[in-house]
Amino acid sequence: MGYNREYICFSSDLIRNGCFQKLTFVVTIYLSCFLIRQVGGSIHEYQNESFIRRSNSFFFHGGSEGLYASDLHIDPDKKGSSSPEDNHLNGKSFIRFESITFRRTKESAERKNEMQQKTGLVEAIIVEVKDREKIGGSYLHSAAICCTPDLSKDGSCKVGEVIIHQDPNNPYHPQRMQTFFEGKNEDTTMVLQTVEINRTGMYYLYFMFCDPELTGMMISGRTVWRNQGGYLPGKMAPLMTFFGLMSLAYLGLGVVWFLWFLQYWKDIIQLHYHITAVIGLGMCEMALWYFEYANFNATGSRPMGITLWAVTCSAVKKTVSRLLLLVVSMGYGVLRPTLGGITFKVLLLGLTYFFFSEALGLVENLGNIDDLAGKARLFLVLPVSLLDACFIVWIFSALSQTLEKLQIRRSMAKFALYRKFTNSLAISVLLSIAWIGYENYRSCMHLIKLLIRVGSVVF
After folding, report:
1. For the chain, which has fewer Cβ within 10 Å, the N-terminal or C-terminal residue?
2. Are 216 and 89 in contact (CB under 8 A)?
3. Which residues have a Cβ under 8 Å from the Cβ of 138 and sit 6 or more positions away?
């Protein structure tokens, strides 16, 4: 009797009222999208980084970000509503060099003359992607990056400097800032300066030197990159709006679900509480990501605490969503009151997925935004993908068995609902796989283009 009362939601009267159809719709639409993955900051810090040799030059990649052009038309009402420092930065995009220090080796410094004012040159070069071919001697039909005595004969460049082809119509791109060592000093500090960005594009920063005697030099300090609307990089700026809208969407879904709860409160079973938990986790996840991006945009660095909570909330939601789909597919609440002997296997799969999903989220959101290696991410993406595949296979295998049992018992109403659920889930999985394939293709093409661009500048 207790069993029949507990699972009364699946009675014929309630099916006619539409509770189970709504339940199926919500589970399919909002939980099957778990396969679509969610695709760190504008302050780039350098701690005793070394230079790499390319051709006849030495370089260090200081960062790369998409930057919008500075807004020259600033609303006067907004300008007067903040502090003087904020007013100065409001609407401007820039790259600021802060505490950039170069340290050469003691042997290199001792070879210089104490009386000389300039005994070593380091250049910071800001180049937009479409201007990358202006770096180096390609326009002089030379593979050299640094100017040589032969190339300097016609006055095209100065010996010891990086070759930059200046366009008369756009003489400020690429931009170079020079810093000199003095006498036998082992250290030199770059002048604190801010380079304003007046053209929208993808910008790269390189620190370069041409003197082989500076081999072994290290760089420390940081650069601050800012867009006109804040510190979020160009590729991440739309995400703040996205998470804000998704927070409102989850809030609306929560209100609708609460009203359904009130309407069918006498027929609530444990499964409904699990769905409520997933919706609540979705609200918290989107709200946390929104505040994380808003804080990032305001300060230029990711708030560690909020980021950790957002990543954890996201991992918990994904795990619970997958487990909920799995137990529903097994007929939990329809054919069986408990999972029986497979409970341990289900929980083990869920815990394993949570561990790798949490680790992947931390690597993605706490790493450098311009990291080209991504070895740690690749190491974690593979097990997460395999676990996703395990969930998919197990879910559809369980659905097949559940449909077969319902057909044998001639529970045609439940059979029809589960068949619709299976079809909807299959379509969602196919769309998710297609989207993941498209995203992977775009990511691979972006990485290839990025490596080509970097190579065309430094080779």
Report:
1. N
2. no
3. none
